[in-house]
Structure prediction request, 747 residues.
Amino acid sequence: MRLTKIGTKLFILIGIFTLSACATREQVALDDALLTQYASTGNLPIKSATVITDNDQAFASKLALINAANTHIDLAYYIFSDDHTSSVLAQALINAAKRGVKVRLLLDYLSTYKDLDRLSYLQQAGGGNIQVRLYGRPSQNIVKDAVYLTLGCGQSSKADAACNQDKYAEIEQLFDNEKINNRLASDIGISNLSTPMSAIFLSGLYAKNPELMAFSLEHGQSIDVAALSASTDADSADTQAKLKKLGKLYYQANYQGGLASLTAKIKLATATLVLGDQINPVLNSVNSFLPTNRENNSIARRDWDYLTEFLHHKLLLVDQQTMQLGGRNVENSYHMNPSPLSSKYIFMDTDVRLEFNAPDPQVTSTFDRLWHFTTMVASLDEIREHAPNDFLMNLDIYKQSQEFCTDQSTNNPTCVDQYYQQHFVSLDQRLIKVEQSMTEMIESYNNNYAPRTQGISQSFALDASAQVYYLENLPFFESKRGYGSIDGKEADYGKAIHATWLASLKKTCEQATVNNPQQVIIHNAYFFMPGNLLAALGAMVDGSWDCTHVSLQIITNSIETTDLNVVNLLAMWQMKAFEDYRAQQTATTSATFNYSEYQQANENETSTLSLHSKVMLFGDDLFIGSANADVRSYKLDTNNGLMIMNAPDFVSQYKQWLTAEIDARPKIADRTQQIGISQQKLKVKMNHVMDLLLAKYDKNNRIDHQQAEDFKEKVQGVTQRIYNLSTKILNGDNKAQNEFNRLFKTI
Prediction:
């Protein structure tokens, strides 16, 4: 499950940064030498391997590993929620730390910043044996822009340009010569500096709290929000003109992308918070808010463009000898079956638990590389320097202070500050509340949830000939931060997982014979392919690759079962392009093709069962990990997984289990014929889906009929572009691959 939901996803469709077209290399088939080149480790010395498909068993396995730890525990997760199972696991880590076990917990910044106090409690409760770091820290450029956005010119009467130059100079002076760990911060590309308002801005940004960002902008730049309002007479020409400006601002906020989009959203939030529905922001100059003219602005724009580059690893490594990885985050949705405590979605996922023959440092070394990558990783102490959360956690107190002083009708200019300071909740006080909340969660889990423990293990014997390699998509290459990738050069840009997938597809086709037919199964929750994967599947079905004796099967979520509707909404058009292209082919060397989707079994279910697995079967080889079959997993996020090769018996057992699962589930439906329906029918289907989504997310009926129609028209324009670009990609257009990936990497 991703943190960003439909509201954000539908609008972040156009990126800022353009990758140049580049001729792709001829795809080669995977072999031992190539895999050794791609993998983060050598062939791991595996004693046993267990595939875990049940949520309760996956959670019990993690707890057992933690409870048995003697010296070290390393964890890396995208989501570490504030809920029942996360509290139980956190307490197990604390207990391990009290036994003397050294615990390192690496989490995603954007996903977990809102729980900064809980992470501080975990670190404190570990008595010095638990360290927590967050991946995805703001770059120095983003910190600088936060200062710029919240730094006004006071009572200066200077023109905008002069004011901006003064701001640039002041900011550069502030950041000059900052050192972190005896290195120039500019050399690392980070900063721990802040002003009072830039700190609040970053806190709001990473907590995804537009109200807090609006506050920092308003107070930092001394913006008089009331002055942004005009006549509420909707019939006046002046109001109509200003409403058009508001519409332009709304467009910038939702479509332009990058820092410009972010600032527009903040301005909208500022006006909306104060004026409610009668919002009428009037902007004197875009440049009075945005640092558009400062030196190296293109580099800053790139940093904003990759702001949502998530740590998407899922890893638990104990004593360098046992590990568990796969698709599961740390949250009830992944560690429970449907129950009164479970949330809207219960995820069907796949993990692998491995035991090595003896302690092996290889995976620990790969974890070390991420843990110490200071360009992207920050300690909790650093975060409390550049983005402290004290005002965020006391925002309600601040609102109460305003209400109190308004009700008192006092002329005391310090009334708000006095009330706020008197009722301010300190970090120490907040940590006490965190402990109380965690204790309550654990008690609730123990008293109200009964995990299944019998008859659910999927334990497959690993072939003696098996080779197991640990793969990663990493945010750096040659020790420097990377930004995205170029198709055909995936491994060069640290995208080892996708490089391996593509080479494995080619290998599967080359190994297939009439007496040894091969099967490719993509069992993946989010199927919105990057350009390179789409092109590879196209080569499999058009005869470019000889895949005569290969069957290609896709199994993914439907729009009814997914937690990310927008992925399916857009993927419909990619699959339409794929099926149209496949229908035109006449080659006899094509792979056969099947496309299936999970269906919602019962509309009255309290929790929707949603696929979350990321499993790829390539003939006799198997990948299990955290990477989705979408553009984001390729272009943005870190990911990890295992490539299990030369294990025909192990893979056969897994394939038999998966086939039985598919056959036993009437809710998995063959949709191969439906993906090729006419564009007109698909548009009708799209409009119906969008009507359902608008009804679902517009609870207060703020969107009128014309707005809804305009929205659907814009989305239809985007989906048509997806179809056109996908068609070009399938016909060998490398430039279209890069454009497609650039446009849709944040989806």
